[in-house]
Amino acid sequence: MTEQRPLPEHKQGDLLERIQERYGTLRKSERIVADFLRNNAGKRLDSSITELGRTLGVSEATISRVSRALGYDGYPDMKLSLAEGTRNRSSIVNLPLEIDDSDSLISTSNKLASLLIAGLAGTQRMLDAHRLEQAVEALRLARKIVFVGVGGAAAICDEAAHMFMKAGFDATSYRDGYTQTIVAATLTADDVMVGISHTGSTETVTDALLLAREKKATTIAITSNADSDVGRAGHVVLTTWSADQHLVPLHGDFLEGRASQLFLIDLLYVGALFRNGDGPATALKTTGEALEKRYRKKRGTA
Asked: In angstroms, rounded to a whole number, what is the distance separating the alpha carbons of residues 224 and 126?
């Protein structure tokens, strides 16, 4: 094993920084321990060294080596460090509880990545194959696709419309209730409206979906709460992951929610591409060439 050099003084106070500093020097079995510690940052570790070894399938000696490699006197010292890291939480409202205002940027990046991965994995587990097929089929056959949302969800709607439009679909995005109402009133049975709301309580999105249904358009709801107003307004509901705790709409699980919404949009987009023959591929090639020509001309290289 590579000889361990002392950790720099500025690296000694944060477990995740220690892991980041030492990870490349750890053996395969030791990385199992390091990965467990990284994935459980901010949680109190109550297991004995024997119990943890049994859980991870590694020896007690391996855990002890990791503890010393990370600059601790041993496993009890490392456990104490973890416990101390759970005592003082950030006073900033609605930051994820895992993130502390005393965390280093490396520690924060690890925690944010873990939260986003958990959100995507949770959304994947909640996918219903039949509903997904229904949504893709409606989108690929639609005369017009309209995405509606407000706030952060509106940004997802803009991205969705942009993606579908480049592939040759007639897709648009609207973020204000006035315009959403006007557009919903003009839809027909050949059209699809997709409403996005993390909480499912956005009134303008609910109203637009209900009006679109009245006009016989197919409605798709993307929300973390299938029983919400937005969820019930959709012919098809695709559910995103949500944290268990109740949070005010500031940060909380909304970052994970946005990532999950974009994941579902990408999934619907890819599904519609694959089910629509050569049309989308041709459209993507055409729009790509047009954009390349435009920007080449702007650079004076045409």
From this structure: 10
Helix (H, G, I), strand (E, B) or coil at 237: strand
Per residue in 81-130, pLDDT (tens digit) is: 766 654 444 545 455 656 666 677 887 788 788 778 888 988 998 899 99
Pairing of strands 171-174, 144-148: parallel
Calculate the CA 138 to chain-centre distance.
24
Please classify residue 198 by burial: count the beta carbons closer than 10 Å to its beta carbon, then call 0-12 exposed, 13-18 middle and 19+ buried: buried
Q: Are 161 and 187 contacting, i.e. CB atoms less than 8 angstroms apart? A: no
What's residue 34's pLDDT?
87
Measured from the Cβ of residue 290, the count of other Cβ atoms closer than 10 Å reads 11
Task: Output the DSSP codes for 257-280.
Answer: HHHHHHHHHHHHHHHHHHTSTTHH
- At 171, list the tokens: 């897709």
- If we measure between CA atoms, which residue out of 131, 142, 140 comes closest to residue 234? 131
Beta carbons of 175 and 149 less than 8 angstroms apart = yes
Nearby residues of 51 by Cβ (< 8 Å), 6 or more positions away: none
pTM value is: 0.67
| CA atoms of 176 and 37, how far apart (whole Å) | 45
Query: How many whole angstroms separate alpha carbon 29 and alpha carbon 58?
Result: 7
Q: How remote is the C-alpha of 21 from its chain's centroid?
A: 27
Q: What is the DSSP letter of 9?
A: G
How far, in Å, CA of 201 to CA of 267, rounded?
Answer: 24
Block residue for tokens 């950030």: 90
